[in-house]
Design a protein that fits this description.
alpha+beta; 5-stranded antiparallel sheet; about 50% helix; about 20% strand; elongated; disordered C terminus
């Protein structure tokens, strides 16, 4: 038989924040996880309305829902689609899921046990997953567009020229037509190689990030006339495969954005290592833009976050854009540790 002390130990040891709230919405008890989550001390919470933990804009609605719940109390588990915001002592909010379990105390007083779980990490992972799905779909659209606009046009033109080749009146005309067909085949091959490099550069498989980026810059110069002034250190021994791919995609996207939207014909890219990190910086002197740090360049932010890095953007209308991405470097010991036993 468990004693009151045993139940108290279970209450205090719960990995989730737990509060006991009476029928009037007053907090009667809370565990250490609740103190840590919300930042209020036990003395500051005990005996105060639970609405203290609700953002001001939602308190009236919360009181109404609480009164309605007290009329027909019932157990409500987590995972029911109720994503709420809880207010911490410092004024910040955190996304939470809350389960409710009504009952009576030994004294006969009605109460509700509220179990509160911080889902910040879960929401972030879901946002990352959505961003990655979006990035994959955008890459598929880009590949489809490139295949249609470039490769299929070459094939259609070649088909027509092959049909016309036999009708050329002289050997010289036929040779000229053959040379033209050969040139268009070479153009098609170069186009396919650009697409392959865009999907997964062979240089990255050989751990040569700088070479892979140089290929991107060369392709964008040949196709769009956009110049990239690159200063790329050899940092391959300081990156694992995931970090190298993340840096490659971020720089690729940033340079493509500069070519499409900055209103200039050149950008500068640097790649270096410093202080246990590898840093890439993409800068243009273009038109700039109003940047919302919570919404802008989401896929770049998420790619950096997935490998433990970070990304900052310095821009404003009329003064260009600088994107700086930093990922942790790895050394020989880190590489060995990744190999297993």
């Amino acid at each position: 038989m468990l004693t009151e002390r045993d139940y108290r130990a279970v209450f205090d040891a719960s990995p989730d924040a737990m509060l006991i709230v009476d029928s009037e919405g007053t907090v009667r008890d809370l565990n250490p996880q609740a103190v840590a989550m919300f930042g209020w001390s036990r003395e500051e919470m005990d005996g105060y309305p639970v609405e203290r933990l609700v953002p001001a804009a939602s308190r009236t609605r919360h009181e109404r829902h609480r009164r309605h719940y007290n009329e027909t109390p019932r157990a409500r588990p987590m995972g029911q689609g109720f994503e709420l915001l809880a207010l911490r002592r410092d004024g910040t909010t955190i996304p939470v899921e809350i389960s409710l379990s009504p009952g009576r105390l030994a004294s006969g007083q009605e109460h509700v046990i509220c179990t509160v779980r911080d889902i910040t990490g879960w929401k972030r992972m879901r946002q990352m997953s959505r961003a990655m799905v979006t990035a994959i779909e955008n890459e598929r659209k880009r590949l489809s567009r490139d295949l249609h606009d470039e490769f299929l046009q070459y094939l259609a033109a070649l088909k027509i020229r092959v049909k016309l080749l036999a009708s050329e009146p002289t050997a010289g005309d036929r040779e000229q037509a053959r040379a033209q067909i050969a040139g268009e085949i070479d153009d098609a091959i170069r186009g396919v190689k650009r697409m392959i490099r865009g999907l997964l550069p062979p240089e990255l498989e050989r751990r040569r990030l700088s070479s892979a980026l140089e290929s991107v810059f060369r392709d964008i110069g040949e196709v769009h006339g956009f110049t990239v002034d690159a200063n790329l250190d050899r940092v391959d021994e300081e990156l694992d495969a995931a970090a190298a791919l993340a840096l490659y995609r971020i720089v690729q996207e940033a340079v493509t954005n500069a070519e499409r939207h900055a209103g200039v014909t050149e950008a500068t890219v640097t790649l270096r290592s410093a202080g246990g990190a590898v840093i890439a910086e993409i800068r243009d002197e273009g038109c700039g833009f109003e940047f919302d740090s919570h919404k802008g360049l989401t896929s770049m932010h998420e790619r950096a976050a997935l490998v433990g890095g970070g990304l900052s953007v310095d821009t404003a209308p009329g003064r260009g854009t600088t994107i700086r991405v930093t990922v942790p470097a790895v050394g020989p010991e880190d590489e060995r540790d990744r190999g297993g036993w």
